[in-house]
Amino acid sequence: GQNIDQPTEMTATEGAIVQINCTYQTSGFNGLFWYQQHAGEAPTFLSYNVLDGLEEKGRFSSFLSRSKGYSYLLLKELQMKDSASYLCAVKDSNYQLIWGAGTKLIIKP
Amino acid sequence: DAMVIQNPRYQVTQFGKPVTLSCSQTLNHNVMYWYQQKSSQAPKLLFHYYDKDFNNEADTPDNFQSRRPNTSFCFLDIRSPGLGDAAMYLCATSRAGLAESYEQYFGPGTRLTVT
Predict the structure, then answer these.
(1) In angstroms, rounded to a whole number, what is the distance separating the alpha carbons of residues A28 and B14?
(2) Is A95 left (phi over 0), alpha (psi -120 to 50) or beta?
């Protein structure tokens, strides 16, 4: 079966750095997406990785290792508004998105 | 601004009473998706349209139907809602083609309550 694993919940301090991990086992791989979802709202696109390495976008970076079936999302200079769920999703060989259940990130002052 | 719009944002229906949720988009995307998301769970794909081609997920109950009368609009019909159908329903769109990087754009969702 296809599977995406993320920690259920993480806590971090305002101004700090946090890394949210995602491991996946899918039938084929056509890219990995990270989405942010605030409580009661729709997911919004953060990043996309298809090649190994680090993609940086302002305070957010995303890393991929295809050989290890592993990605992480790195958030720097955390702000209170970063409190949200972060969902990892992989496009499989049929170009369908397989979603993780999300990691709820709690930011404390 | 180009966007995905869902109406209503909150819907309360009675057990067994049919309900229709709507989605419209100004992005002119060929692909439209309907997801069901329950609290702290991954979005679950119900079906998607590639233009007018309808694709039903194997485990989507028959109770859920969809219509796409044109590129801009898509509807989700729940024929006989049960208590287990209470959830957030998300509509999303994406560009067509097999480009891996085409992300999905989501509407704000409709929160369905079944009483």
Answers:
(1) 42
(2) left
Tokens representing A79 are 């702000």
Q: Do B106 and A42 touch (CB under 8 A)?
A: yes
- Among A50, A87, A101, whose Cβ lies nearest the Cβ of B100? A50
**Residue B1 pLDDT more than 90?**
no
In this predicted model, what pLDDT tens digit does every residue of A57-87 receive, in sequence order?
Answer: 999 999 999 999 999 999 999 999 999 999 9
When pLDDT is cut at 50, 70 and 90, the band that residue B2 belongs to is low
* Interchain contact, A44 vs B106, CB within 8 Å: yes
- Do B114 and B83 contact (CB within 8 A), yes or no? yes
> Least CB-CB distance to B100: which of A31, A40, A44?
A31
Quickly list DSSP for A31-61.
-EEEEEE-TTS--EEEEEE-SSEEEEETTEE
Task: Determine the pLDDT at residue B3.
Answer: 92
The 10 Å Cβ neighbour count of residue B4 is 23
**pLDDT over 70 (residue B97):** no
Higher pLDDT, B25 or A42: B25
Cα–Cα distance between B35 and B87 in angstroms, integer?
A: 10
Strand partners, A106: A11
Query: Would you say A53 and A64 are in contact if contact means Cβ atoms under 8 Å apart?
Result: yes
* Average pLDDT for chain A: 95
- Measured from the Cβ of residue A57, the count of other Cβ atoms closer than 10 Å reads 10
